[in-house]
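Input record (one chain):
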Amino acid sequence: MINDIIENEVKEMPFDGIVTRAVTEDLQQSLIGGRINKIYQPTNNEIIMTVRNNRTNYTLLLSIHPSYARIHLTNDKFQYPNEPPTFCMVLRKHLESAVIESIEQYDLERIVSIKVRGFNEIGDPITKTFMLEIMGRHSNILLLNDDETKIINCMKHVPPFQNSYRTLLPGADYKRPPSQEKIDLLQYPSEKIVHKLDFNQGKIEQQLVQIITGISPFIAKEIVHKAHLGAQKEFIKAIDTFQEQVRTNQFVPTIYRKDREDFHVLPITYLNVDTIKFDNVHEMLDAFYSNKAERDRVKQQAKDLERIIKNELRKNKKKLLIHEKTIEKAKKADLLQKKGELLTAHLHLVQKGDSSVTVIDYYDPEQREMTIELLADKTPSENAQRFFKQYRKLVIAKDIAATEKMKTKNEIAYLEEIEQQIVTARDEDIDDIREELREEGYIKKQKGKQKRRKKPTPEHFISSDGTDIYVGRNNMQNEYVTHKLAHREDIWLHTLNIPGSHVIIKDSNPSEETLFEAAQIAAYYSKAQLSASVPVDYTKVKYVKKPSGSKPGFVTYTDQKTIHVTPIESAIKQLKVK
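The corresponding structure, as predicted from the sequence alone:
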């Protein structure tokens, strides 16, 4: 059962055994011989270690997040709790000031052991093993004794009634995760691997994932692509090439971007998408995973807000259709007025009881005849008045519908902005969005004393030439950067007809480089974050106006110019003020 679960988890994760190998190989060069200085636990899923080696400080991240489990060096900044969790305290007791002796990957599995040498309370040398097991939602971090037979403690406790195969508790015997009985890619010749494939069964990609340890569907598709779906000989050649790349560490860390992002350390040739290459595997993983775990956490906090926004959007889109149908129906109003006037002019031709009358159409240049349908139980005058009454009713309905249609479109635009802000929100932004929705009547107001609003803290960037750039991540921040923080001569940016953030360049005449970077930031903090050639409008702040009574964050602007950019997360991160 657990094998099936792990198997399914592995298929979904780009952080496979080959990526783990690339990380481990690099960590061996960087960290072996280094001393562990500090250990932190920012969340229930993450451990941060600072290691000093060869006069350089390294920050090592180990994560057992159910979707983003991984290990790599990072440049990200983290917020730490005032009181460290128990597991963090245990690690500090056993690992702080210890020296890293070895970093090993088990076979080609996503299991990494870090062996350290330190001293106990009476000064005797001791060794401990710090173990990371990446298995999707079953991932764990464990601290083991010197011969790796006993668990000192682990991040996620698993009692016997939850897992009959192995118990993960302090003091329990340590047992490796169950074998998946796969072939080790680097220990078997390609011919033996190919002979295990059933070409008649098809689904070669799935078979490769089930047969070979450490590869993801990403790599399986690449092997099939290189073999051109040929016979055994082509697959043997493709796997030979693949094995050589892994054995000799021919790694090219790359992020692949289209509708979604993927990554790998081996070249993926079957994808025809945008790519971002990195100097090392750690930079790639930092760029890919940065903020993803926080966004996942924020998404959990904002579940109720997302539901409210989706419901409101659905209701308003229905309303918009009704208003559009009313306006379409009102196009008949002129014809009804025309029939009433023509009937009034020809009352002498009509008798009560007539079901229709044919008259000369004076409004037609050729004065052709028109047949007007009548209600037989009405007098000629009553029939004419009926047409005028229907006409007036449609005209009034059209005017109301046109007004309501504009309001509804503005409402939809506002809700789509909020929807986008939730996607890019930080932990602290959710409270602002929630309070705004209360004030706007989407959420019931809480009774009692209202919290005092904090000063908005927009995102701060510094361009390559040293110019300050500010970004609002919610409407309160948008209004702050546009109407308070900015000078009237500063430059204001926003994606064209796409929900996104207000961006300010604190300069009246920025360089082309700064303008381009600010436009990239505006595109990144918009619904078009993963798109190419995103249109971004820019103008001076003095041309940006907030209409009286409009929704928070809503503005109109003039005198704009448009620039097209493709947002690149790694480049944008380098400009961010930590």
